[in-house]
Amino acid sequence: MEKAKESTSETTLSHPLLSSKVKELPKNKYAFASAMIASIASLLAGYNIGVMSGAQIFIKDDLKISDVQIEILAGSVHIYSLIGSLTAGWTSDCIGRRNTLLLTSIIYLLGPLITCASNNYFWLMVGRFVTGIAIGYMVVVRIYVAEVSPAATRGFLTALPEVAINAGLLLGYVSNFAFAYLPVRLSWRTMFALASVPSILLGFGTFSLPESPRWLVMKGQLGKAKEVLTQISSSQVEAEAQLIEIKEKARIPREDTEEFVSTQNCSQDKNIWRELIMTPTPVIGRIIITVLALQFLEQASGIDTVVLYSPRIFEKAGMRSTTDLLCATMIVGLIKTSLVFVPMFLSDRVGRRPLLLSSTAGMAVSLIMLGFGLQMVGHFLTAPTWIVAVCIMAVLSYVGFFSAGLGPVTMAYSSETIPLKLRAQGMGLAIAMNRVVCGVVAMTFISIYEVISISCTFYLYAVITGFAFVFVYFCLPETRGKSLEEIEVLFGKT
């Protein structure tokens, strides 16, 4: 095999067939296209979360509901997503990653349609309940993209779902602004109805996707797995080496090269949960604790308060015009979406840890600045321009630092560290933690700031973000350039 010069696009694979470094393509077009299609589900998740930011203004006026009901409506979708995140692993193991994506597209079509047809609070909650289940199913996107990504470009490709989520948030904010001038009864319904378009695209797009090669190996379809690996790898030799590594982790004899009837079935789900939670090995235990802690800290930093309540935060900072509030919120979405490209291009170059450390440090400083700005507002009858500017810049800085590290890298890191056998259920557990904390933050933000003040609320989030920095510094090993099978060994070394 021809040796290549060391570069950031190289990776060292542990198998003897690839003992030398193999220069991989900067990005495999087939893997990239597959990741893009699958990421439409993440775009839908972002849109259905972000659209509520502005839609709640018009829903409140139209249906005459209270702040508490708005708080529950905005945050409960994350709690409902538990159903999807905890069942997505089982579904993706039983019927495959690709078919689970198809199921997700159907649920995404139903949820927004029920929401936009609602005439009272009960049916609004039903629509958000169905949408929440679909949002929980985005766990399969993380699994699928990680499993079809070559090791050297996995950081780039596994960031695509996060880019899609942020693009969805931005589109939600744009629809808030675009349809704000329609009659109140029609405006928010149109915002939700638009979500049906990407769900249809996702449904048709799944038919062109390959199945995950790692799922195919687990099901004994070695021939198909080899075909997919050949398509997503930079060489035939690499594909064969990857197949051998996957077989070893799936406990399939190396000499077994023919199709066989897999002994793994959906009834083994209890054994997997036992290995994840009840009696994990020290290595698995460390991986799961690390992943869950990282997911907790990501959401406990308060990011969803800005995602869902930007208009309210800017109003507290002194802005009054509805148009100005929605325009400022749209800029938040633009910054959040733009900076998510930073980890896409840098995570495979500088590593996961540097991005996480710089991100959490920047977020903590931004939150302190936002808390200070909101605290100063209380000293004036009319907020001076400089205070409004400080608050706006703090919010933009906060979401920018989040998108440049903690947001996308957390999910990429989680999806690549959980071992193959446990990946589907493990990621379901990780997303469940993420959604629970996200839901609690979203459903308590208004209540908390009414008790301790909005400035102290953001100071609290700053302290939590500081803990996230400490956790990353002391507890997270670097995974850059490692194959999915090598990462399990990495966690066992320390």
From TrEMBL:
* Record field: transmembrane: 30-50, 70-89, 101-123, 129-145, 157-182, 188-209, 323-346, 355-374, 386-406, 427-452, 458-476
Transport as a keyword? Answer: yes
Q: Topology with regard to the membrane?
A: Multi-pass membrane protein
Localisation per UniProt entry: Membrane
Q: InterPro entries given for it?
A: MFS_dom, MFS_sugar_transport-like, MFS_trans_sf, Myo-inositol_Transporter, Sugar/inositol_transpt, Sugar_transporter_CS
User: What are the residue boundaries of the Major facilitator superfamily (MFS) profile domain, all occurrences included?
Assistant: 34-480
A GO molecular function annotation here is:
symporter activity
| Record flagged with keyword Isomerase | no
Q: Name one GO cellular component term.
A: membrane
Which coarse location class describes where this protein primarily resides? membrane
Arranged from A to Z, the UniProt key words for this protein are: Membrane, Sugar transport, Symport, Transmembrane, Transmembrane helix, Transport
Task: Give the PROSITE patterns listed for this entry.
Answer: MFS, SUGAR_TRANSPORT_1
Q: Which family does it belong to?
A: Belongs to the major facilitator superfamily. Sugar transporter (TC 2.A.1.1) family.
Report what the protein is called: Major facilitator superfamily (MFS) profile domain-containing protein
Please give the organism: Rhynchospora tenuis
